Write the structure tokens for this entry.
Amino acid sequence: AARAEALGVEHPACATLPARGCRHALVDRNENARLFECEQGIKDRFDRIVPTLQEIAALGRGSDFPGRAQDWARERLGFELPTAVLERAWVRGPDMGALYAQAVFSALAGAVARFGDRIREELAAGQGWDALLVDCGFHAMNVSACADGRLKGLFPYVLRIPAANLVRRSAFAGTLFDVEEDVRHWEHAELRRYREGFPTTADVPTRYLKVAVYHGSSLDPKHQGCAAHGSNERAATEAALERLYEFRRAIENAFCCGAGTDILLIGVDTDTDAIRVHVPDGNGDVSAYRYIDNAALYRQTLTLDADRARLAVYEAIRAASATEGWGKGEGEPHDGMRRLIATLLINNMSQIEYVGEYHGGWYGDMGHGERFVSVGDGFPEVQVRNIAYYARLDTVEEGAADLDVGVKIFRHLNVERGLPIPVALHYHFNEQVPGSRARMEDKIRRIAEGIQGRYAHLAKEGLLYLHGSVQDMAPGSALEEVALT
Amino acid sequence: AARAEALGVEHPACATLPARGCRHALVDRNENARLFECEQGIKDRFDRIVPTLQEIAALGRGSDFPGRAQDWARERLGFELPTAVLERAWVRGPDMGALYAQAVFSALAGAVARFGDRIREELAAGQGWDALLVDCGFHAMNVSACADGRLKGLFPYVLRIPAANLVRRSAFAGTLFDVEEDVRHWEHAELRRYREGFPTTADVPTRYLKVAVYHGSSLDPKHQGCAAHGSNERAATEAALERLYEFRRAIENAFCCGAGTDILLIGVDTDTDAIRVHVPDGNGDVSAYRYIDNAALYRQTLTLDADRARLAVYEAIRAASATEGWGKGEGEPHDGMRRLIATLLINNMSQIEYVGEYHGGWYGDMGHGERFVSVGDGFPEVQVRNIAYYARLDTVEEGAADLDVGVKIFRHLNVERGLPIPVALHYHFNEQVPGSRARMEDKIRRIAEGIQGRYAHLAKEGLLYLHGSVQDMAPGSALEEVALT
Ligand SMILES: [Zn+2]
Ligand SMILES: [Zn+2]
Ligand SMILES: [Zn+2]
Ligand SMILES: [Zn+2]
């Protein structure tokens, strides 16, 4: 918020910020309180590491160092540091880089264990979200966002979408998602409809929804936007939109008529978490110039009671559909799409108010502030803004561009301070598929080798630490470490 | 055949070989003649390269060298050599490695152009094969073999399976195919049944057939078997069988009841091309110890007329199903499986006789004799024994083991003679999928970079040459070169 004040900028959703927050009738304040506890609980684990290690560094190299350091760690961090590293400390002083990396991985494991329960709760909520999707005429929702750590809280925070069965999430630098992979997922979802009648039977004309999420920064658009597009918001928008159209055409061409896919484009302002929803027209087409700015909508509906505010949201969708000029489209989207958009806008109003209440309207960490690099299919338990830079990849070769961006961010965040880059490799396996676990372990070792090779200079200087783990697909399963050689 | 004579070995299918071949009533000799023309036509293109370049090397370095060399090349090879390389020759003599690699790629392009027509003919035959599969109760046949070049003629020669719509082919070192990828193909095939009723509608209880092909050498089993399994035929058999079971369980677990998959295991003797078919039992289970040796079956049925020989083939399947001891199973496979096995055995009898007639019963190139390394999804036009070591991969990272085996083979075949390793990268694109061509070109450049990085020492010494090309999926499309940097 400091920068906003320095710039004399008025908050787009609530003019009294940062002094005093606003209260919107559609906001779920209990959920906000719960989410803040969670954000604090997770971030604290990481943020206590550096001060604690600084204190440990000051303990000297006496023979009581290992014991005293371990006591400190237990007391301040809630976990132990690697004994072997502590016991070696008398020779050349403690290896703070190794201790730091190990502490980050322990904090991560602790957070996963602590919030595994939450995932089970979320799954119950997810059933409600699945039902909503089907009610809105969708049998699957596939969301691809940018890998940027500031979008790491996209689902539980920004959009308030729980871990639902019908929702698939992925992240790529610059939202440049993999069209071929999505075609396969489309097939997978479609086949389930035919074979299992899940979630709708194939004769019901429900649709597959592909969503792309780009981002920008309202406070510092030229520097704090999407790095993959040189902080050019227009470029980020157009790139995401182009992929959406490529995906739709790929399905239409491969499966012709009646292949029923909808596309939706969403932008996030990573300073306020307010979203922008690009309203599709009656043909399902999306325009960079036809959208609803949810910060403005929140502000406009602040004085209304819940019922009227809800009506105003639908009215905003109607008004957006009537956009003239560059953003002009052909009529309104179908009922279910309107209802889904309204739900997303209303959910996001809670998040706008969350950032108002707990972060003064604008995040203090306007830029990157990731705690580690997450490689693999992600930790569903730890989805909080700026907790991790997330690269969703199957090979270093294909994911090299995503990894390079992450390493570049951490050169600035960590290496410049003398700290190593902690990289957590993590994949889920399916206990029901024979050999799946062993294959995932092999995959993690292969990827670890690839990363060590690609950033050999960092690894050699002790500025890169890797940690591997697998987890069964069943929600709430324990994290199991994979030994890397 | 020389080695067989030296060893005093009798040919397992025809005792009078190599002096005189046998004539079996079920063999298609016209097709054999046509196939031999094709084998010669393709191999000749490659085998003229070294002698021609040796003559060119002897031309001296006079000012007329580029012209004379080019004339020779045109006359003897049917294509031109790169002018720039010839014109540089006066400085340090001609760069024979570069000329050799270019000539290999030109020979390959020539063979693809020449036999593109054959693919179109084959497609007509393929419709017949598709119909046979459906008649046998299969809606897809997915065959994975070893990447070994001696199996490169598996489809058109050893098994006589044309390029059919319902047949999918892949190759991996040691037949260690990718279970996850096959699950996706299973889904793809299944979805087509539901959405398009192709080739059968979903209510028809046809089955998906997964075939694994391993190989061994009857003349020198300890040295000329499958390199990926240390020439241990038992290990090669068990590994292929285990993957088959993993695939079947993966489908059953993911899609439960009625997921209808059949598995089939086939072994090839790369000296004689005679196959061994492991007959599934009534439950669809396969045993390493229950099989039909087609060389023996050919020999036993040599005196019979076509009708009786055909009956004898079915009798052999029945007898195999009655195997006692380790290979004991539970009854006979279903009718369609029996018919498919009989067809494969009869087809392979033609190949046994082909090797007898045109190669004296045993191939002269008993070991490796590949002309180039083929990386990508393969050249359907050029499927001839020992023409290429074939690595089917999407990333160097995942395919590293397959590539290493190929490079090891070519160190022996080429590098030891001072010749470079020619690697042809080739993928098909789908003109109907937007951006597919550009993505394939990017992929080829990425893989080329990966290969150059992995074998940097070879590349630096001019012992590794890469060539990239793409081709539209439509059969008979032209090969289009992709410039590599
Ligand atoms: Zn699937
Ligand atoms: Zn971004
Ligand atoms: Zn597919
Ligand atoms: Zn092999």
